[in-house]
Design goal:
With 188 residues, the chain is mainly β. It has a single domain, classed as Sandwich (Immunoglobulin-like). The chain is built from one helix and 13 strands; from the N terminus they run βαββββββββββββ. Strands 4-5-1-11-8-3-6 form a seven-stranded mixed β-sheet. Strands 2, 7, 9, 10, 12 and 13 form a six-stranded mixed β-sheet that branches. A hairpin with a 7-residue loop joins strand 4 and strand 5.
């Protein structure tokens, strides 16, 4: 499993080719609007192709026990809350605080249907969000047991304040075939 953060070594936001056309077609199917507090300057969410990690960070309250650190922000393929259940697919939030702000610690909580092998439904880790550039709070499917259909919730809190909440719906890949293909995506 890939609870994902981006390495802080010079990251730029990029959106993949075809993002605009695909976003319009898929966005109409979205289920819920995300919540963003006033402490957050920008929030983008969607589906991306997962990259391999460059390092692992301990995260004992996750099923894998680690958070994958990736070298760059992913190209969001579409701003959508519908996620195809397929190995190599990632989904999540690109989030940034206001310029000059540093929110630390930030508790990230992902809630999802239970994994069939462990029954785990809630995963949590600590990160930070600043105003120096977007941070990725993401998840990518790496094992078949993670491909659980249904609602997935991404939340972040700082000092008791909810910073954001995005509700995703993981669906069979055939429902959103245009998002289910990732050439060269990270497969563990």
């Amino acid at each position: 499993m890939d609870h994902t953060r981006v390495s802080r070594s010079g990251v730029a936001v990029r959106f993949g080719a075809g993002f605009c056309a695909l976003a319009g077609a898929v966005a109409a199917q979205d289920l819920r609007d995300p919540f963003r507090s006033d402490a957050i300057a920008s929030l983008n969410y969607g589906v991306y192709c997962a990259d391999p990690p460059v390092e692992l960070e301990e995260a004992p309250e996750t099923a894998a026990g680690v958070v994958n650190i990736v070298p760059t922000l992913p190209d969001m393929r579409a701003e959508t809350t519908l996620v195809p259940a397929r190995i190599g697919i990632g989904f999540g939030v690109l989030v940034e605080a206001h310029e000059g702000d540093f929110l630390d610690p930030v508790t990230v909580t992902i809630t999802h249907p239970p994994y069939p092998d462990s029954g785990i439904e809630v995963e949590r880790w600590i990160t930070s969000i600043d105003g120096e550039g977007p941070a990725l709070v993401g998840f990518s499917f790496e094992t078949d047991s993670e491909l659980v259909l249904g609602p997935w919730s991404f939340e972040a809190e700082h000092e008791g304040e909810l910073l954001f909440r995005v509700e995703f719906e993981v669906v069979p890949a055939a429902m959103v075939p245009e998002l289910a293909q990732c050439a060269g995506a990270f497969l563990s």
